[in-house]
Design a protein that fits this description.
By secondary structure, the chain is α/β, with parallel strands linked by helices. It contains twelve helices and eleven strands.
Length: 351
């Protein structure tokens, strides 16, 4: 039996932040993702970040598209505003919401399929416009909901669970975000909470488009072709009245290692990802150097994690458009219809 509701009662001595909220107040529904999924670790990082920053949940608007990653807003900040949009269209919906009410903190959660394929155009424009938001991509390199096809971020030469080799070049969302004008660009690993939580907190505090690409292993597609215990083999050789899925329990993959170090992380399917954490003296203010560093490390098969670039003097879309300080959804009729004199001034400015 599965319980999707958490008990409302909790221990009265749970630690509270400056607002009087416990960490439980930042949680959502119980996750229905596969046990051990990296996405759940990212949700835990988001919960921890907002709890530690003393941000009231109702001040946050969380938006997503379609995919395993886009299900995750259900699992955190249950008392915040939320909107699940159509596939790849989260950025435009978030942009409209941000224009209407600038007083909320906007968090967009997406996946490598949602952002790097069908939504790549939306990804590009929300970053170049400098929408004041935190944009998190939960990147696992596969289409999890449609059973493990390569996504646009899958590395060239990587092998699928059915043995197919990816012949296409991967889209590096971090390099793309740098080129498009994001003023805060970082990469994290779902299993490195020590690094991920501060990155999320810094992105929340940043004014402008803050992008975090989080490498998040998928635990579902690790059974291999030829195994008589694989899901596909059993389905092909079993005349069942129901089509059922069972996902074995997997422990979350974690990696705790020092700054400047390289760590090989073994995934559930036996694959290895090589992570390099930035040095403590890395200069995150040089965009060109960041792009050069990323390419040089990628040539060595390394995935760089940490804060790669930040513009400390950045502005956002509201500053560029010279919108008023009052949220648009709070304007009164008198503000929206200022009279003939104001209309005359507008017409004169266009002549």
């Amino acid at each position: 039996m599965t319980y999707l509701a958490k008990p409302k009662l909790h221990h009265p001595a749970l630690p509270k932040n400056a607002l009087g909220y416990t960490r439980r107040d930042y949680e959502g529904a119980i996750s229905t993702l596969c046990a051990g999924c990296g996405h759940d670790s990212i949700s835990a990082g988001i919960i921890q970040a907002f709890y530690e920053l003393d941000i009231a949940p109702h001040r946050v608007a969380k938006l997503s598209g379609i995919g395993c990653s886009s299900k995750t807003p259900t699992y955190f900040l249950g008392n915040s505003h939320g909107f699940n949009s159509v596939h790849g269209r989260m950025p435009s919906v978030l942009t409209g919401a941000a224009l209407a009410n600038r007083d909320l903190i906007y968090l967009g959660v997406s996946g490598d399929g949602d952002s790097a394929s069908i939504g790549i155009g939306q990804f590009a424009h929300v970053l170049r416009r400098g929408v004041n938001m935190v944009y998190i991509v939960e990147n696992n390199g596969v289409y999890g909901l449609t059973k493990g096809q390569f996504s646009a971020t899958a590395d060239k030469g990587s092998k699928s669970k059915r043995g197919a080799i990816n012949s296409d070049e991967a889209i590096d969302l971090v390099l793309l975000a740098l080129a498009l004008g994001a003023t805060f660009v970082a990469r994290g690993f779902s299993g490195d909470k020590t690094q991920l939580v501060p990155l999320i907190k810094a992105a929340i505090a940043h004014r402008g488009a803050a992008f975090i690409d989080v490498i998040s292993p998928c635990v579902a597609f690790n059974n291999h072709t030829g195994s008589t215990k694989s899901y596909d083999y059993v389905r092909d050789h079993n005349d069942a009245v129901n089509r059922l899925d069972f996902m074995p329990t997997r422990d979350p993959i974690t990696a705790d290692y020092p700054e400047g170090a390289v760590r090989d992380v073994v995934l559930h399917d036996g694959g290895v990802i090589r992570l390099r954490k930035l040095d403590a003296d890395y200069d995150a203010s040089d965009k060109v150097a960041a792009m050069t560093y990323l390419e040089s490390r990628r040539a060595k098969g390394e995935v760089v994690t940490g804060l790669l670039y930040v513009d400390a003097a950045s502005d956002d879309m509201h500053a560029a458009m010279k919108t008023i300080g009052v949220p648009l959804n709070a304007l009164r009729d008198a503000d929206l219809v200022p009279g003939n004199a104001a209309l005359g001034d507008v017409n004169a400015s266009l002549r």
